[in-house]
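The material for today's practical consists of a large collection of protein records. Read left to right, the backbone structure tokens trace the chain's path through space. An example says more than a description, so a record of this kind follows:
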Amino acid sequence: MVEQIPEILRRARQKYTNGGLKALVVSGTQFALRDFWLEYFVKKRSISRTELAKIAAAKGRIWYLEKEEPLKIKPLNHPQLEKEFTSYSKQYEPERPFVCELSDCLLVGPYAMGLVEDDRIITETTPVGQKRLAENIDEYLNSPFQLLRGSRRNQPDQRIKCAFPLVMPYDSYYHWIIEYLPKLRLLDYYEEKTDKEPTILIETAPPSYVSETLNIMGYRRDNVKEWQFREAKVETLTIPIHRPHLFNYSKPDLSEYSPSRRDLIWLRNKVQSNTGESDQKNGKKRLYISRQKATSASTGRRKILNYDEISEVLDDFGFESYTLEDMTFMKQVQLFMSADTIMGPHGAGLVNMLFSNDPTVIELFPEGTLKPHFYFLADMMGFDYNPIVTQSENDDLIVDTELLRSRLNSILTRANS
């Protein structure tokens, strides 16, 4: 614990700098006692990925897929964005993926976090790292004091024979597609090796895309259950590794980003094989992904303020505008399978490029929101990626139509050559 003291002092100084002596004194008890001790106990009461593998291997209940080749994100031919993204790691060595099973576990809290018999946390069942977990422990556990018990006092009434938790703690289409659905690759491998079919647990009242994607990928509706308990005893808990996709925009070197190209290719193939024919009766399409109807607090940004002006440019270059909110997941996949070119403002809809076959991708950035999600994704998939930075107003875009026309002419001429 002594080695943690400098970190406590650093936080205290930050609290004093931001809010003065009163803020430090008022928050002191919570800061020094609650936050520090919870961080300490979360660390002490967690089972790391390495430890989990050892425990499962000792019981012969772990299955590995092949190790993946390293990933290297290529530099952008865009000085402004290359400078903006310079602090993000561009080289990754995906850890060899595995799936394992443990007996007599407990799932707790709103996101079905896993605990072993002595109430230690199975970190692969948490969507965040230890530090963030400690900072928000009340959100993940029914009571943080559960970590202090060391042994179970009461056994829950709810029991599940075999479970595969796939509970996402936030409504994010991007993270569902990139971070959660690829875990099913390991579920398929587990079922192949064991002939077991775990119950897939999803969040209570999930967004429609959660159920739609699972259904299209072939997972039986009667084997997908909403997690509605505070606690449940699980006879056999099936645990895949969790690859986070969380960028830290203020401190990029602290990002929790663990990509896997093989995961993404597996997901694309799985979805495409269950989708049927692509929507290309009239040949390959140039898609513009519109955000003009976005209304929620989380997605109601990055609209084009001068959309009427750019719509003429889109027409001239043969783009068709689509509002994905109006389409089922099946229709979205079929649409993107037919895409030759995909363009749109930065937003979750661009993740559907994953279901395309070697498209040209054009991402529009408002100058105040420069994030690397789709640059990295396009590069990993080998797609031709082209960013355009525009003026902005409150995170909405103001697009210079002449600049757009010039860039489209250059990009599309190169793509067709």
In short: The chain has three domains: 1-44, 46-66+94-263, 277-416. The first strand starts at residue 46 and ends at 47.
